[in-house]
């Protein structure tokens, strides 16, 4: 073991097979209360539709086996609760547990989306307060909480833009997207029926305004801009960019993925942004849960309000809240029911805990990123030197000389007890190391991270093999991804039986 | 602030290390004119007890103490405390998407088990790691069918959940798809003749739900045959997954889009739930969303990775199969734990209880003069009855007795003016059913 | 790996060779090397028509997709079905068993604008120099 690894020691973990391999007929982990109405002969009631004998292949195990199974699996994961998660662009911050508690309250978790609105005033008040908070934070005029995640928020936003242009007689053809953007941006524009035109970032990692002016024609519907960009750099001339677009009737969409750098410090609505989405599972602390759920509210200026998805929350006389399903110009629904309500509850709990003090979180996030930058500058190559906001992007140029790339360094970080940073993104930085500490890390944790990165940089020079073959301390190492993709095995099957399909 | 792990002195130390005087300097790249001069006008800060008190107060303004007969895409089912115990483990709750396989094996193996359970339930060969919900899964299944067939017309049963149809229309509008609806018959199932005559060679997908929005079970075999004869794919949506405990799986379908809410996920005023897409293996490269696959590591040990990622937006960008990134992973984990707890026998028993309770409720309701069953097709835990008076009026009476009445079908199907969609699950007791029936009877006996 | 002199090459790293009026098309050793382990190959279906300079298929590694451009126009005769089962052939024998499609050329004159082996090797040598600087 390396003396420079201070954060972790080796720890045995339990082995555990697939739950299907533990199954034995007759075991069970859940008992239902006895049936209090006459039993029905399912075969008779359902006829040709009847499935005999339950779902073939389903596990039969006891309660303790289920609990142990999933507890053992859980210990194979890294998590925010274990330490720093410096994934650039992902904003992996602390997930306050009170948020989990309130989302599970009887009277909130139990509510049905079709129950009478007079029996849903509590839910609707929560939604209304969250809307107000998000409007104050973004400086926008109207908001929908319906989108299920950031990418769906993007789609909603672009559909609003499309509706606006259609109203004016021409939906236009193109959406401009910088080369540093997330992959969801171009994928979204296509679903909304637009062509994508990439725009190149300047040497300083900013939008080249002169170049933009040439690209914004009458065919351009919008520019999708991430601010701060995925380089962690604030787009200083954003108001000018908005003017260039508006002069040609195009709109400015802001991808709010990096809102953790701006909350309480500046407001997109004041910068000329027409429409944006927020990722509540990033900026507003709702847990990532291994990939979701999230929520992607979309905030807009007045001009796009008529097109918001239905239903829209409205306040009637006497302060009674209601859902308005009848809006002629709406783009329609983007998902069933009102949105990921449980996620919205958690986000509001987060905002209420901070209140106006949410600015302190932003300041600490930016402080942490700059502290790490200061200590690692020179140790790692910094291709874009403009001031960093909440994240910093290095490249592996210095380590490449020793045959060590960003993925190797990332995997070696695991041995030091950290989750890797984001590798190889943004695409405009070859061999990128994208580091976002968030406000949730103490100085001590930041220092441990800095020490680990410096130590790995030294290893890259003195003993590159140890970095290139990392990780060395995990349960499994260097999984065969090529084999997994060439001959996909996407489900368990009982041995000796080829396929259950079609039964 | 209790969430922030720094003392004022540590902040000063860090600023000094960076070489700036104040934190304001760190924001120098934001033009002065755009920096907020005053604090945001937000409520708070609240202590933890105050946060809880706020939400308790809101919860008290909702439907606590009421018995509900609503389903229509969101169902009440029993679940074990074990499910939430597992979900609240920080290693699941606070982990990221498992891109770094070496330290995400727990999430990856759980996804693999989820995919397996979904295949077993649906009779399909592959299933993905989750979509946002049943409605977007249905829409994505149609877009998948469009890519697979290269055709642009979509035939959708009117008995598909009305909000699922709305979502499909929102997405279809700019994808060059034309969506046409197929009527339902007197039995409450898809009009096979109408479907047949609408099927020409240009249809990519026939979309049906089973049990459908009226609770009626659809014979998928003939629908699949009709679709396939004209070169279209059959997409089957499922909103009530528990039905599969006692109902034949939709193996005839080419793509299944399922809402997994029924598997241990709270109604939660409409979300978060989990959508699933399951399909035939030959279609896997057009499937949207994440997939976990089994493989081996350097030492030959079994392990799991996210695979076939070239379909996804972070690699293929504008040519991706979907723009989905964040999915509903934790909800899918809840379904995995829940279904593992129920197991083969538990799910069957739960399904049979639903069937028995719904049959009982229908029988009891039919004892009221003028109450008629509308559709003859076999049903699971939802059915339609016609009342001699407006459902809204009856529901208003039920509310007075702390009963949330059935879904008013007229709101989505103008022709079903006096029709109610009644849902009864294993969570509804016999006493509650009898109380509801008595209340309906009283409401109908009231003078107009 | 040697670049056969009877083949012609594109700057998008495809090769083409004509024998008995039928052209065989593949990707070069340089291309497979850049891409890494190939896990999937998408090829046109029967009846497809290829247009010079236009995309006709794609090759995937675990984390990248590379589109393949037709070096010349023609009607598809046959796609290499063996690649579905063994995509790794593209890595082991890109200029031979790893061929992608056979086509009947509709405008053989297009071949004259392609690179010969020497010119292609000079082109990739230049690229490699750029990458290492």
Write up what this structure looks like.
The complex is a heterotrimer of chains A (503), B (448) and C (133). Chain A is of the alpha/beta class and 503 residues long. Chain A has two domains: 101-355, Type I PLP-dependent aspartate aminotransferase-like (Major domain) (Aspartate Aminotransferase, domain 2); 357-484, Aspartate Aminotransferase, domain 1 (Alpha-Beta Complex). Chain A is built from 15 helices and twelve strands. In chain A, the strands form three sheets. In chain A, strands 1-7-6-5-4-2-3 form a seven-stranded mixed beta sheet, sandwiched between helices. In chain A, strands 10-12-11 form a three-stranded antiparallel beta sheet, with helices on one face. In chain A, strands 8-9 form a two-stranded antiparallel sheet. Chain A is globular. A seven-stranded mixed beta sheet of chain B has the order 2-8-7-6-5-3-4, sandwiched between helices. A four-stranded antiparallel beta sheet of chain B has the order 11-12-15-14, covered by helices on one side. In chain B, strands 1-13 form a two-stranded parallel ribbon. With 448 residues, chain B is an alpha/beta fold. Chain B is built from 13 helices and 15 strands. In chain B, helix 6 (134-149) packs across helix 7. Chain B has two domains: 67-78 and 344-445, Aspartate Aminotransferase, domain 1 (Alpha-Beta Complex), CATH 3.90.1150.10; 81-338, Type I PLP-dependent aspartate aminotransferase-like (Major domain) (Aspartate Aminotransferase, domain 2), CATH 3.40.640. The mean pLDDT of chain C is 93. Chain C has four helices and nine strands. Chain C has helices at residues 29-35, 82-85, 89-92, 117-132, and strands at 8-9, 14-19, 22-27, 40-42, 49-50, 55-60, 65-69, 74-79, 101-105. Chain C is of the alpha+beta class and 133 residues long. The two termini of chain C are 23 Å apart. Chain C has a single domain (8-128), classed as Beta Barrel (OB fold (Dihydrolipoamide Acetyltransferase, E2P)), CATH 2.40.50. Chains in contact: A-B, A-C, B-C. Chain B binds chain C through residues 285, 309-310, 315-316, 319, and chain C through 40, 42, 60-65.
């Amino acid at each position: 073991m390396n003396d420079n690894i201070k954060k972790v020691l080796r720890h045995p973990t339990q082995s555990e097979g697939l739950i299907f391999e533990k199954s034995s007929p007759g075991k069970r982990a859940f008992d239902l209360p006895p049936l209090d109405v006459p039993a029905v002969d399912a075969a008779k009631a359902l006829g040709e539709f009847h499935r005999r004998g339950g779902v073939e292949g389903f596990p039969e195990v006891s309660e303790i086996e289920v609990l142990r199974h999933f507890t053992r699996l859980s210990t194979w994961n890294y998590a925010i609760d274990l330490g720093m998660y410096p994934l650039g662009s992902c904003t992996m911050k602390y997930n306050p547990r009170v948020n989990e508690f309130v989302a599970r309250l009887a009277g909130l978790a139990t509510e049905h989306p079709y129950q009478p609105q007079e029996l849903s005033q509590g839910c609707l008040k929560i939604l209304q307060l969250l809307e107000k908070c998000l409007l104050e934070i973004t400086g926008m005029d109207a908001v929908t909480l319906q989108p299920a995640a950031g990418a769906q928020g993007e789609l909603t936003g672009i559909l609003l833009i499309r509706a606006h242009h259609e109203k004016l007689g021409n939906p236009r053809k193109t959406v401009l997207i910088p080369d540093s953007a997330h992959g969801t941006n171009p994928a979204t524009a296509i679903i909304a029926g637009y062509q994508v035109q990439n725009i190149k970032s300047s040497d300083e990692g900013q939008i080249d305004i002169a170049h933009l002016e040439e690209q914004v024609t009458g065919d351009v519907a919008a520019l999708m801009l991430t601010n701060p960009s995925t380089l962690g750099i604030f787009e200083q001339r954003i108001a000018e960019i908005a003017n260039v677009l508006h002069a040609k009737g195009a709109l400015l969409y802001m991808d709010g993925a990096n809102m953790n750098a701006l909350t309480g410090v500046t407001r997109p609505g004041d910068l000329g942004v027409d429409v944006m989405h927020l990722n509540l599972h990033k900026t507003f602390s709702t847990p990532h849960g291994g990939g979701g759920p999230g929520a992607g509210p979309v905030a807009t200026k007045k001009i796009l309000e008529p097109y918001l998805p239905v239903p829209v929350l409205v306040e009637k006389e006497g302060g009674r809240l209601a859902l308005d399903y009848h809006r002629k110009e709406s783009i329609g629904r983007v998902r069933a029911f009102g949105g990921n309500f449980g996620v919205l509850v958690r986000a509001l709990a987060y905002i209420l805990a901070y209140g106006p003090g949410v600015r302190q979180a932003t300041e600490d996030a930016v402080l942490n990123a700059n502290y790490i930058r200061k200590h690692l500058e020179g140790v790692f190559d910094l291709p874009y030197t403009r001031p960093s906001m909440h994240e910093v992007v290095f490249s592996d140029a210095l380590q490449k000389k020793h045959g060590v790339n960003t993925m190797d360094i990332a995997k070696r970080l695991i041995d030091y007890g950290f989750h890797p940073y984001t590798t190889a993104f943004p695409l405009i930085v070859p061999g990128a190391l994208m580091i976002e500490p968030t406000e949730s890390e103490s100085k001590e944790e930041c220092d441990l991270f800095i020490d680990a990165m410096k130590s790995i940089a030294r290893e890259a020079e003195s003993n590159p093999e140890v970095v290139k073959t990392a990780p060395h301390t995990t349960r499994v190492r260097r999984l065969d991804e090529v084999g997994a993709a060439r001959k996909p095995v996407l489900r368990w099957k009982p041995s000796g039986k080829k396929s259950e399909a079609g039964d | 602030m209790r969430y922030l792990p720094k003392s004022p002195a540590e902040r000063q130390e860090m600023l000094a290390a960076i070489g700036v005087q104040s934190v304001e300097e760190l924001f120098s790249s934001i033009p002065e004119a755009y920096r907020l001069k005053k604090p945001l006008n937000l409520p708070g800060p609240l202590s933890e007890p105050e946060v809880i008190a706020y939400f308790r107060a809101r919860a008290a303004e909702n439907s606590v103490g009421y018995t509900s007969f609503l389903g229509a895409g969101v169902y009440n089912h029993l679940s074990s405390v074990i499910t939430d115990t597992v979900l609240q483990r920080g290693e699941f709750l606070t982990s990221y998407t498992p891109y770094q396989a070496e330290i995400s094996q727990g999430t990856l193996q759980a996804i693999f088990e989820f995919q397996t359970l979904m295949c077993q339930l649906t009779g399909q060969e592959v299933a993905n790691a989750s979509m946002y919900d049943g409605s977007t899964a249905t829409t994505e299944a149609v877009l998948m069918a469009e890519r697979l067939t290269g055709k642009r017309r979509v035939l959708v049963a009117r008995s598909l959940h009305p909000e699922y149809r709305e979502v499909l229309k929102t997405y279809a509008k700019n994808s060059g798809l034309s969506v046409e609806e197929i009527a339902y018959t007197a039995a409450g199932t898809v009009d096979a003749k109408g479907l047949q005559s609408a099927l020409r060679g240009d249809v990519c997908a026939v979309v049906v739900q089973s049990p459908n929005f009226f609770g009626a079970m659809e014979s998928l075999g003939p629908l699949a045959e009709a679709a396939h004869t004209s070169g279209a794919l059959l997409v089957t949506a499922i909103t009530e997954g528990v039905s599969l405990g006692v109902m034949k799986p939709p193996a005839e379908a080419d793509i299944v889009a399922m809402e997994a809410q029924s598997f241990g996920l709270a109604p939660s005023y409409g979300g978060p739930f989990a959508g699933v897409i399951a399909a035939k293996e030959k279609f896997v490269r057009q499937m949207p969303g994440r997939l976990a696959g089994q493989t081996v590591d350097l030492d030959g040990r079994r392990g799991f990775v996210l695979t076939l990622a070239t379909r996804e937006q972070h690699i293929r960008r504008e040519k991706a199969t979907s723009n989905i990134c964040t999915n509903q992973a934790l909800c899918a984990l809840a379904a995995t734990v829940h279904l593992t707890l129920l197991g083969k026998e538990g799910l069957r028993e739960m399904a049979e209880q639903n069937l028995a309770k719904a049959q009982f409720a229908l029988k009891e309701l039919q004892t009221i003069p003028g109450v008629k069953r509308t559709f003859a097709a076999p049903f699971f835990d939802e059915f339609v009855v016609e009342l001699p008076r407006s459902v809204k009026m009856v529901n208003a009476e039920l509310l007075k007795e702390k009963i949330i009445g059935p879904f008013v079908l007229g709101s989505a199907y103008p022709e079903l003016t006096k029709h109610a969609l009644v849902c009864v699950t294993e969570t509804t007791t016999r006493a509650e059913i009898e109380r509801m029936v008595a209340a309906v009877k009283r409401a109908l006996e009231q003078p107009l | 790996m040697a670049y056969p002199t009877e083949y012609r090459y594109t700057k998008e790293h495809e090769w083409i060779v004509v024998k008995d009026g039928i052209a065989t098309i593949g990707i070069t050793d340089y291309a497979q090397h850049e891409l890494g382990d190939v896990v999937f190959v998408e090829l046109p279906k029967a009846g497809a028509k290829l247009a010079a300079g236009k995309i006709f298929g794609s090759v995937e590694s675990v984390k990248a997709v590379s589109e393949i451009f037709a070096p010349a126009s023609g009607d598809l005769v046959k796609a290499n079905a063996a690649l579905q089962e063994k995509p790794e052939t593209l890595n082991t024998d890109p200029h031979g068993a790893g061929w992608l499609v056979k086509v009947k050329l509709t405008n053989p004159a297009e071949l004259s604008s392609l690179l010969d082996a020497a010119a292609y090797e000079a082109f990739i040598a230049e690229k490699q120099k750029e990458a290492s600087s």
